[in-house]
Input
Amino acid sequence: LIQKEMDRHTPPFRLSINHAFALVYIDGLSNCETFVLQALYNSRKFPCPYIGGSAGGKLDFKNTYIYDNEQVVENHAVITFVRLTKPYRYGILKTQAAERTGDVYTVVRANTSLRYIQTVEDAHGQSISFIKALCQHFGCHSADELSKVLQDYTFATNVNGENFIRSVASVDEANDHINFFCDVVAGEKLYLLKRTSLADNLKKELQNFVQGKPAPIGGILNDCILRRLGYPQEISHIDL
Output
């Protein structure tokens, strides 16, 4: 159904990776990010980079409001195609203030729709509770203790050597599973990452990114609320 809706629309200009990109805004409370991306790729109609993400509105996670230039909508994805005139170019910078620890977990039992992991493989290939596996790794004796330890860590999947963050939402001891802010599937490998300095990482990444490029005339900034909550001491000092 999502793909059929996309097929109804045709941008009024040619999409070229050198001149065009798409800004994608998804109602994060719909839990449909993966479906939107699958429809975008399966349509093969919009050959350009997709930039953006999902939002949960206020921290009460009750509503997400997105304006589509005509009305405010919920349970929607709004895609804006941007084409630059010939003298101009764009660049995409993505930063993540976390690095791999070397530990990796293979998901055995997970619920993609409800976004939780119940069991993973242990060192012997046997299924084990994800909570138990992490408690053993960190030396924790309770779910509350594990939740506090995980504030300094996150997880990621690997795509061509690049990290794509998978953030923990909560540790559910009663149901013996760990909730995530995005869907995970059985067989997926999750890499454990430890948080590093947000300010130092951003400064280094930006310096590398601007090398050999003319001074930018503007930018569109997307940030993650989890990053702001996870680095409260550093946020006020970032002035790049």
